[in-house]
């Protein structure tokens, strides 16, 4: 046998490939490897049982269960666990229910008898608990192991929230927590939640809803916290007695879903000394341009993030009424967008506005210069803007100043070509090789002769393979465009896509 196969880490890496879909995920291969020789037995069994797909696998390893049911054939005795421990100690990750139909409330009163070591999987590191029945939830205690580093809990009823304060105490190495409470759990849980929060001293990754400003402030003081996902925010998130600079000092990723703009602005005021790498907000409504400017102003006050922020997303959960498109108060202003140019290290930018952006070729040129490391840039509107001041010249700016740009979403007027004295003409011959996907939104084009546009874009981005329009967006029914004027140039853009050199090389003519 080759000496390399005597290195445990290398053998584990090789055997792990046999659980991948590429190899069909065939457990029989690992079973054969385990029987090949003694050196392979333990590594093969460790991989085979590391992430069991069905809890029924563990029920089948003892002599007390029918092969196709979960009915006891006889009472459980301590000796029944001897064989089970050979396998259960190898389990590192477990999800309930995964592909199992088993109800724990029917089997665990018996199965938990004579349970050795106090838990089913003594070396478990990742636990996902999503019971379909409320009666199954309390049995999570039988799976809590001191070795758990990551736990994800969904649909936790208020009656079981008394278990929360014990989690950090029983799992001393717990780093990642994701909890989804159902119904009015916060209202009914009394002092359990504050007690739980006060035990979180070493958590690094937290995903859960926080009921009030006090909880948010406490989480903001956890020094080890690096990742925070909040499904929503309390309306008032910053008590007057709290110094904003003392919160979220080490937080690198903040994701907030389904939130009004006011609490989103308030939480950014709590993070002025944070060093963010990733920020993402999903807004419930379409705020006015003035209100959005206050939000972005609060964002730019996070001065330590100017050199660290890599990803920024400000999106919307739903498109607003089309009538807002006609209201200039909702158009995102150019000076608001320019505020973001201080984040010079951005690689992913996604900004959505139901009513569009106040952009022109000059602002796009500044944008391309401000974000030279951009790999994905999305400026997306939900409805056809009244005016399109951006032209094809802006594409040239991105090709010239953003060499790593791979995906671009931008609405522009493709009927206007660069003039003889434009930067696109004075710096002709530039080709950007990284761009593969271009989304043109509601861009206008000469429907009678789209070939010059295809040549212009193809010369700038010779490896461009995919071109999409607003009609391709999943939140709108493509058939709804058949009877309106939202996307009259769709077929012309299809012709442009078919003529792209990169697409021709990939798919042929």
UniProtKB/TrEMBL annotation:
<dbReference type="InterPro" id="IPR032675">
    <property type="entry name" value="LRR_dom_sf"/>
</dbReference>
<protein>
    <recommendedName>
        <fullName>F-box domain-containing protein</fullName>
    </recommendedName>
</protein>
